[in-house]
Amino acid sequence: MIKITDLEKYYATEEVRTIALNKLSFQVQEGEFVAVMGPSGCGKSTLLNILGLLDDPDGGSFIFNGIEVAGFNERKRADLRKHNIGFVFQSFNLIDELTVFENVELPLIYTGVKPAERKKRVDEVLEKMQIMHRRKHFPQQLSGGQQQRVAVARAVVNNPKLILADEPTGNLDSSNGNEVMDLLTELNEAGTTIIMVTHSEHDAKYSHRIIRMLDGQKVTENILSEYKSKTLEV
Amino acid sequence: MLKNYIKIAFRNLWKKKGYSALNIFGLAIGITCASLILLWVEDEMSFDTIVTDQELVYSVPTNQKYDGQVRTFFQATPGPLAAALKTEIPEITKAARLRNRDFLFTVNSSSISSAGSYADPDIFDLFDLKFIEGNATDAFKMKESIVITKEVAQILFENPTNILGKVIRINQQDNFQITGVVENLPVNTTYSFNWLVPFENFTYDKPWTQEYGSNFTETFVKLSPDADFNSVNEKVKHILPAKTGDEDTKAILHKAADWHLRSDFKDGEVVGGRVEYVRLFSFIALIILVIACINFMNLATARSEKRANEVGVRKTLGSDKQQLIFQFITEALMTAIFAAVLSVLVLILIIPAFNALIDKQLALGLTIPSHLLSLLAITLTCGIFAGLYPAFYLSSFKPIDVLKGNRIQSKGAGFIRKGLVITQFVISIVFIISTLLVYQQVQHVKNRDLGLDKDNLIEIPANGDLIKNRKAIAEGLKNTGMITGLGLSNSNILSAGNNGSGLRWQGGSSTEDILVSYRYINEEYFKTAGIELIEGRGFSPVVVNDSSHVIITESFAQLMGTGSALGKTIDRYGDMYTVIGVTNDYLYGDMYGTSDPVMFYNYPPEAQYMYLKTNPKYATTEVLRSIESTLKEYNPGYPFEYRFVDDAFDARFKSEQLIGNLSRIFALLAILISCLGLFGLSAYTAEQRRKEIGVRKVLGSTVAGIVGLLSRDFIVLVLVALLIAVPLAWYLMYSWLQGFAYRISINMWVFVFAGFVAIGIALLTVSFQAVKAAIANPVKSLRTE
Predict the structure, then answer these.
(1) Beta carbons of A87 and B317 less than 8 Å apart
(2) With contacts defined as CB-CB under 8 Å, which chain B residues touch A106?
(3) Closest approach of chain A CAs to the CA of B660, in angstroms?
């Protein structure tokens, strides 16, 4: 599903040029659950931004579903993103002025789904995430765990092929964190590909494979459980 | 999608109540201002709509050359001109004369005084008068006929219908038959009248009105639709010289559409008029809207950090830039709509006060399509204009930056924000300076030495038996001690008119052609009006003693050469007059200019006005009551009408007062809006720098130090604005003042004062937020960071 080759990304200030990704290469198969780990500043988030089509690499190739997307303009990236990718953030990033229902509805609005269909799908996903009873609440009225469930609901409401999770349990206590990880695992088992950036060894164990990074490069890769019959190669 | 935008816009407005209130209030002031100005402009543009064929109907002023200068006079055409224009120029299809007059109407036992005109029958067609009773063809068939407006009919008759043929007694001597009732003229009519009588009622006993020598009437013409204006105007210009042999007096055409807005002439050509004020204020309306919109932009971009996260999330979820732009513009539009609603409420409340201030009868009609559409247009334009920049700015955020919590620090946005604040203050300071200078100029002229004493001076129209009984009236009133003088004059003391040229005098060159005003007065006129006799003697109470004597003003005496003018003779068309006295020059006509020389005759029978000098020791009401009872005794049947000369003098400055009043209001509002903006901006700056303030306080900074730190940046902006505004204001006001012959010179202290005011106000506004931030507990701000 994803194949990146020699991916490069620099950040330049007036005096210093920092290399965030240094000729990084790997692949992710459809249906896989991959955890990316590494110390702060190793390039994990940069990688996630590029994979999420929020940012453009400075070099290398990024093939998404068989299409070379490196070099896409913002409009094309936005289009590809809204139909294929869901995001879960550490800080939830719910819109404070919208209710739970409206937050989850938002991706459907942007993909042009009709109101009746939107309502049906949002209700379904809220039911599944067990936050239906909170549908009319605003984010500030929910606990952290509930907010992250809403964020996950929002990420999956469009049935994306890929979910990118950036430290999804970083702001949660352990029991709420476990709930969210269970949720992601369920989604993965239902067929959604997940790439998760995390600091937590505990969370990483939910994945099939852990990629460890340092200074913008991959250092090791641990396969925790074989993913179906597909071969993993680097 | 739109529903979603409106919903979130509404919730955003509600959540940030203070911020929303600043925005809505600022925009509402802008919209209110613009609406008031538009109402005024609409009123100014709606003059003379009674004339349907605005491009075909013309008045006929005359250009007269004196001392090499062409001056344009209204109501200054000779009697036979109208008929000559109609018969000799084929393109002229209608021509009529109009001369104003006040009549006393009596029906049964009730009397009213009413202003109207002597007129020729073509006037009905020229002014498109709508007959309710009677018709234009038959109205003026007999001499003693009168056409009145519906309003006059309603005042005179209990049952104002079917009144054709009824009789009105005029000035208690003549009976006129009503031959027509017409619809009232609109308020906005340049040449207004309440009644019309045939012109021959004025001319029948005045042979001089049949000749070309005297200019005494207004003339109007209508051209045929296919006429070429320029060629007709040329023909009109030639007609007077052809009749009189005088190449220096020419009739010209002045189109109906220009009567109100373009009636200032220079060198015989229209150069402008009130239209300049219409343009100026339209521009000011725009400027006020712009500064209100600037507030919106500034506050919206200043709080962008708060919105950045939302932008990031929306973009991540698939929103593209256009959708975000649309969303933010929707929010701006909602703010503008709230502002418009507020503004309508405010307008309803303040229009009466505004009317009082500018002496108009403006009304906001939300059912009038033009008003509703204008309001809608202003609102939409404001919303879109104010929302556009923030929309582009906010929608350009990169989601990865904002979602990672990176500070949105755009140097460009900060720069633009500063530029906008400077713009606001430039406008405010220009307003402050202009207001001060307009005020100074009006005061300057008002305090000018007029050469006469306008205080405690009452003017009364000299109608009926007033002149005949003048001696008895004077005696009666003086005996009460309330009146110290009774003067008579053929002309209003403050007005020009009643003038002529072609005088010759001893020692004068024959080529000199000076316009001189003639005043027919009584012996007490100078004393009453406070005009000083500087040489010679005044007139005798016995009129015949002075039948060949005149008194002249100082400027006239100077024209007559060096040495005393006393005893010199003046030749007025063959009649010789000896100068027996010289008075000081006094101001009349153009209050900003210098007045023409005056020649006074001792001839009270020609008087149109009586002037009474009152004794200030007595209460005005008491004096007026006493005058009224005396006049009733000697001039029965006439209502007591009067006005104070100092009020009349003040009324001369209506335009300038209007400019003064309006610019004062706009100065205040511009400053208020700018301060609202500054207030909001300083609040956000203080919030953004909370951590810095906390750290500084922990390290030992005082409250004053922090207030200084936060205020300094804004004060620098105001100083920059001052640097730009001073030359700009100087240039604008210098140009404005050039329009007045008698004017102030611009003083530096005005700029210094304006600078202090602007900085003072800015400092007050900013320091409120700065002090609030400075006295906050630093522990709190450091913890929450």
Answers:
(1) yes
(2) 4, 314, 317
(3) 47
Domain residue limits at A168: 31-56+73-223
Q: How far away is chain B from the Cα of A201, in angstroms, using its nearest Cα?
A: 22
- Binary contact (A95, B313; C-beta < 8 A): yes
CB A177 within 8 A of CB A203: yes
b/e map B175-213, b = 16+ CB within 10 Å:
ebebbbbbebbeebbbbbbbbbbbbebbbeeeeebeebe
Instruction: Identify residue B635 by its one-letter amino acid code.
Output: N
Q: Which domain holds residue B546?
A: 457-651
Per-residue pLDDT band at A234 (split at 50, 70, 90): very low
Report the number of distinct structural domains present in chain B: 3
Residue B102's CB: how many other CB atoms inside 10 A?
14
CB spacing of A78 vs B403 below 8 angstroms:
no
E strand or H helix at B335? helix B321-358
- Record: contact A95-B4, CB cut-off 8 A: no
Q: Chain B 218-247, CB below 8 Å of chain A: which residues?
A: none
Q: Does B399 touch chain A (CB under 8 A)?
A: yes
Among residues B259, B292, B326, the one where a domain terminates is B259
Regarding whether B211 and B123 lie in a shared domain, the answer is: yes
CA torsion through residues B48, B50, B56, B59, sign: negative
Contact A55 B405 (CB under 8 A): no
* Structure tokens that stand for B75 in this block: 């109501």
B130 Ramachandran zone, left/alpha/beta (phi>0; psi -120 to 50): beta
Beta-carbon separation of A74 and B309 below 8 A: no
Nearest CA-CA distance, residue B336 and chain A, Å: 20
Average pLDDT value for residue range B457-464: 91
d(CA B736, CA B304): 43
Q: Are residues B208 and B320 in the same domain?
A: no
Q: What is the pLDDT of residues B346-369, one digit of tens each?
A: 999 999 999 988 888 888 888 888
Q: Is residue B620 part of a domain?
A: yes
In a domain, B637, yes or no: yes
Alpha-helical (H) ranges within B89-149 are: 123-126, 136-139
Chain A residues within an 8 Å CB radius of B309:
93
- Measured between CB atoms, which of A49, A91, A107 is closest to B318? A107
Whether residue B152 is contained in a domain is answered as yes
Among B208, B231, B259, residue at a domain's last position: B259
Token output for A22: 């240094």
Q: Are residues B642 and B665 in the same domain?
A: no
Q: Does B312 touch chain A (CB under 8 A)?
A: yes
- What confidence score (pLDDT) does residue A226 get? 62
Candidate from A74, A89, A95 with C-beta closest to B310: A95
pTM of this structure:
0.80
> ipTM of this model?
0.81
* Residues B627 and B666 grouped into a single domain: no
Q: What DSSP assignment string belongs to B488-501?
A: EESS-TT---SEE-
Cα B556 to Cα B106: distance, rounded to the nearest angstrom: 45
Residue B785: per-residue pLDDT:
39
| B254 vs B229: CA distance, rounded Å | 11
Q: Which chain B residue's Cα is nearest to A157?
A: B317
Is the Cβ pair A82, B318 closer than 8 Å? yes
Interface of B with A in 3-62 (CB under 8 A): 4, 7-8, 11-12, 15
The answer as to whether B452 is a domain residue is: no
Tell me the chain B residues in contact with residue A109 when contact means C-beta distances shorter than 8 Å. 1, 4
Whichever domain contains A173, its CATH number is 3.40.50.300
B367-425 pLDDT, tens digit per residue, is: 888 899 999 999 999 899 888 888 888 888 888 777 766 655 566 777 888 888 899 88
Chain B residues close to A78, C-beta within 8 Å: 315, 318-320
pLDDT band (50, 70, 90) for residue A233? very low
